[in-house]
Design goal:
Number of helices: 0
Radius of gyration: 21 Å
Number of strands: 23
Shape: globular
Structural class: mainly beta
Strand content: over 45%
Length: 285
């Protein structure tokens, strides 16, 4: 039996998005852009429900409410990146009339690895069960250099150990981190918690406030894995729906399908924005 495809898939950038973008993953109501020195998230609400036929005539005065925020790798930048768990298909993006903005043959992955974002620290993203990322800290490397600076959100606070990113379109929750090391062939959890300072987030280890009980303390020379999970909630509508309208084949047996698609683009600014449909609210796929 074939393995189920990852719930979140990371599409490589081949010119269809700004140069700093490495991959894009669709999330409920929007998208996560993985960049060399940041994550950018754009989320929408108030999108109309699209139908399958011409009688479904939407007003171009419909207003879509969107909110974008960015998580900067403070003092960090990926030195290399690797797509993980490559999928069997690829994607094409024909955005606008200028071919310079097109991306064709874009590979799709179930995850990605950002190498040496900070010296000795990798970020590994996994889309198997949604958006999840690990911070992998090499032995002897100080995890205190890991700092994320948030931009564009309405609020940022810790609740029961989880980090809540407050937006006008809903909340994104980064679950309380689970950190672990391997000692003598045994995986052991290390007490850890978020450390929030204004709009910047780092990590506390062992003996600090709000750490989990029943865990071990960090030792010099440990290879640490810090393991948060992102949860998206309170969103309505979707900018990633697609509906098929027609299909045919050619003399060589190739199959062709066509329809309409709705897809989030890269945000030009962070914070709240409104997008009125102009010239139609759908694209052809």
């Amino acid at each position: 039996m074939a393995a189920a495809p990852p719930r979140a898939q990371f599409t490589e950038n081949r010119g269809q998005w700004p140069e700093q973008v490495l991959y894009r993953a669709l999330v409920p109501g929007g998208a996560l852009f993985v960049e060399r020195s940041a994550f950018t998230v754009v989320l929408f609400t108030g999108l109309p429900t699209h139908g399958h036929g011409p009688e479904d005539d939407h007003s171009h005065d419909d207003v879509v409410k969107g909110h974008a925020y960015r998580v900067h790798f403070e003092g960090g930048r990926s030195q290399a990146n690797i797509g993980l768990n490559e999928q069997d298909h690829y994607q094409n993006f024909f955005l606008g009339a200028d071919e310079a903005g097109w991306g064709t043959g874009c590979r799709v992955f179930g995850g990605a690895l950002l190498k040496n974002v900070w010296p000795g620290v990798d970020i590994r993203l996994n889309g198997t069960d949604g958006i999840k990322y690990d911070l992998i800290v090499a032995p002897g490397v100080d995890p205190g250099q890991i700092r994320f600076r948030y931009e564009g959100q309405d609020g940022l606070q810790l609740k029961d150990g989880a980090l809540h990113v407050q937006l006008s379109t809903g909340n994104v929750v980064e679950e309380a981190p689970v950190s672990f090391v391997e000692r003598d062939g045994i995986i052991k959890e290390v007490a850890s918690a978020y450390a929030l300072d204004g709009n910047t987030v780092g990590f506390h280890f062992c003996g600090r406030p709000a750490v989990r009980s029943g865990t071990f303390c960090l030792q010099s020379g440990d290879r640490i894995t810090i393991d948060p999970t992102l949860s998206f909630a309170s969103y309505t509508g979707s900018t990633a729906d697609n509906f098929g309208f027609t299909a045919t084949y050619d003399a060589l047996g190739h199959l062709y399908g066509a329809g309409i698609v709705f897809d989030p683009g890269y945000p030009t600014t962070t914070g709240v924005f409104q997008d009125a449909f102009q010239g139609g609210d759908t694209d052809i796929g």
